[in-house]
Every structure is written in C-alpha cells, then in structure tokens.
C-alpha cells in the first residue's frame, strides 16, 4: 500500500464503519517518533502523520510507532519488530491481516498494539459486492457474451433474503446499501450480538440453516482457520438453485473446484469472486469463461480509492498513539483479525 503522489481527494467523508476503542492508560503504547515502511512513495501517509502532530523519522532506534504499508512482504514487518523492540504500536495497511498474523503474534504477546484498516474501505468494497450480486441476478455474465437475442431471465434484489458472513465494516455498509431494496438481511458472525439494521444475527453454528432459502450470499468475514474452505461441495449444495454467491473476503473461504462443479451442474444461479484460491486465478481457468461467473482481480478497492481512506485512518490513530489512546480498527494477530 504505497502511493506515488496520487491525489488524495475524495468526494465524501466516509463514516467510521468500526467503533473506536479507548485503551486504559496502563494499556497505551509508549508514544514517540513514527516511521513508515517502506518509506519510498509514502509521502501522503507521512503527511497524515504530521497532520496529527507526529514526527516522522527513518526506521531506527528512535522509532516508537510503525506505519507498515507493504502487505506483500510480511517478512519486512517481522524483521522490523525483531530489530526494533522499542516499537509499541503498528498500523497495518488492510482490513485483513491474515498474511501477517503469524509473524506479528509473538509481538502482540509482548504488548505491541496493532491496528488495521478494518472498516476504512468498507463503503467501496460493499459497493463492489452489491454491484456483483446485482449483475449475477440479472445474468450479465451471460448477456455480455451472447451473439443472439435469447430468452428473458433474471431476478430482483427487492425483498431478497441476503445472508452476509461477517459483521465488520463491509457488512454494516452493505446493510445500509441494501436498505432501499427492502432486503431481509441475516448476519452470520462468531458472537450472538445483534448488528444494527440486520433483520437477524446468528452465530456460525447456525449458518447451514440460513443457506437453504437464501437468495444472495455475500462473504465478508475474516480469513481464519474457521472460515477456510467454508463453502465446499456440501455447503454449496445447501443453496437453492436460484441463489448467487459473492466473495469479497478471502479466496480460500470457497473451494474453487467445488464451485466450478456447482456452476456446471446448474445447482447455483451464479457466483462472483473478487478474491480467489489460488490468487491470482490462473489464465485460462474455466471460471473466466463461465456464463454464470464473474471474476474481478481483487479490485473491490483500488489504490485511488483507498489512499485517502488509509491516510485518514493513519491520522486518527497517530492522534490516539500520541494523545488520546482512542484507536480505530484495533486488531489482534493472535486470532487473525
């Protein structure tokens, strides 16, 4: 997550999709100078640090807070924390932290506070998920490929039974975006705490019962051992033939070969994946050409969309680090989110 002097303007100020968390004085990390890794191409984020009153320094003995920006190189984060034990707070660049969790867990054990971008990109990702669901219901993958008129088919989102896995910022943004459709939204999450705006909230143990009459299923949960392979042949078979499946979470939540088989058999109306397993999906994979599938290249949020949103998250959390102790998007590498 770096920026090469891209514009940071945005057309609206997003609402916080996760609640800020205030740490007790005894839990707060030790404030001080802040470093960005990598430092190259990150001036927009350095400006966010300064806007909150922070001092930006090269990674070294002075560093007390770290803005880590390269999700693709988790080993760099591990090395930085090993080499600089005075770091007491780390801001991570994305909502999902699964790639870095195992490398950061032991540093959480010693008291390092971690925050992620959870909720920061919720609105554009939810928008993408809704776009994909509507496109599937209206059979756009098939329509965009035809060379003759064909028959009239399609479904409507109005009054649909929508099942969303996950209760974070994306799920909450989706609830808001689905409201005009008068959809019946069921949230499936680890806890039984109700999610505002949802028709109902159930725990993962009751997932199967929610699938049997679902019209739309959207995966927006964290990647954990519990969610890996969640949608295999057995669960896909629980869905009615008119259901559509959208995954904007992590690829391994869906067993790819089982999904292809379900689409080929016509037991699923359509599937859209912004994340895949493997990722990227190999060239020539049957899902690219399937008339009931849409593949987008992990593009639910682009750099142009996320740069100003991450900069704002950094600004808020630098203020928390230096003064207030009220962090947004606190996460725990030991549990993976």
From TrEMBL:
<keyword id="KW-0560">Oxidoreductase</keyword>
<feature type="domain" description="D-isomer specific 2-hydroxyacid dehydrogenase NAD-binding">
    <location>
        <begin position="142"/>
        <end position="300"/>
    </location>
</feature>
<keyword id="KW-0520">NAD</keyword>
<dbReference type="InterPro" id="IPR036291">
    <property type="entry name" value="NAD(P)-bd_dom_sf"/>
</dbReference>
<feature type="compositionally biased region" description="Polar residues">
    <location>
        <begin position="1"/>
        <end position="11"/>
    </location>
</feature>
<protein>
    <submittedName>
        <fullName>D-isomer specific 2-hydroxyacid dehydrogenase family protein</fullName>
    </submittedName>
</protein>
<dbReference type="Pfam" id="PF02826">
    <property type="entry name" value="2-Hacid_dh_C"/>
</dbReference>
<feature type="region of interest" description="Disordered">
    <location>
        <begin position="1"/>
        <end position="29"/>
    </location>
</feature>
<dbReference type="InterPro" id="IPR006140">
    <property type="entry name" value="D-isomer_DH_NAD-bd"/>
</dbReference>
């Amino acid at each position: 997550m770096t920026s090469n002097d891209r514009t940071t303007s945005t057309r609206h100020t997003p609402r916080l999709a996760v609640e800020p968390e205030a740490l007790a004085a005894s839990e707060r990390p030790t404030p001080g100078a802040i470093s960005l890794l990598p430092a190259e191409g990150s001036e927009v984020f350095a400006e966010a640090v300064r806007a909150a009153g922070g001092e930006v320094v090269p990674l070294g003995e002075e560093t007390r807070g770290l803005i880590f920006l390269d999700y693709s190189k988790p080993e760099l984060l591990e090395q930085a924390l090993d080499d600089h034990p005075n770091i007491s707070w780390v801001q991570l660049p994305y909502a999902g932290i699964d790639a870095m969790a195992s490398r950061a867990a032991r540093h959480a054990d010693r008291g390092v506070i971690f925050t992620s971008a959870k909720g920061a990109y919720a609105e554009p990702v939810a928008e993408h998920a809704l776009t994909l669901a509507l496109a599937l219901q209206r059979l756009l993958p098939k329509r965009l490929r035809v060379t003759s008129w064909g028959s009239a088919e399609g479904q409507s989102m109005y009054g649909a039974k929508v099942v969303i896995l996950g209760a974070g910022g994306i799920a909450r943004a989706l609830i808001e975006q689905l409201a005009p459709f008068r959809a019946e939204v069921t949230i499936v999450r680890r806890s039984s705490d109700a999610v505002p705006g949802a028709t109902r909230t159930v725990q993962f143990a009751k997932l199967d019962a929610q699938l049997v009459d679902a019209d739309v299923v959207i995966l927006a949960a964290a990647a954990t051992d519990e969610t890996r392979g969640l949608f295999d042949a057995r669960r896909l078979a629980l869905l009615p033939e008119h259901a559509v499946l959208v995954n904007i979470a992590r690829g391994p939540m869906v067993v790819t070969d089982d999904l292809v088989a379900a689409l080929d058999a016509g037991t699923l109306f359509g599937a859209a994946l912004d994340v895949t397993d493997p990722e990227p999906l190999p060239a020539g994979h049957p899902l690219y050409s399937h008339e009931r599938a849409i593949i987008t290249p992990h593009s639910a949020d682009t750099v142009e969309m996320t740069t100003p949103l991450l900069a704002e998250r950094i600004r808020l959390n630098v203020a928390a680090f230096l003064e207030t102790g009220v962090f947004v998007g606190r996460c725990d590498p030991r549990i993976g989110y």
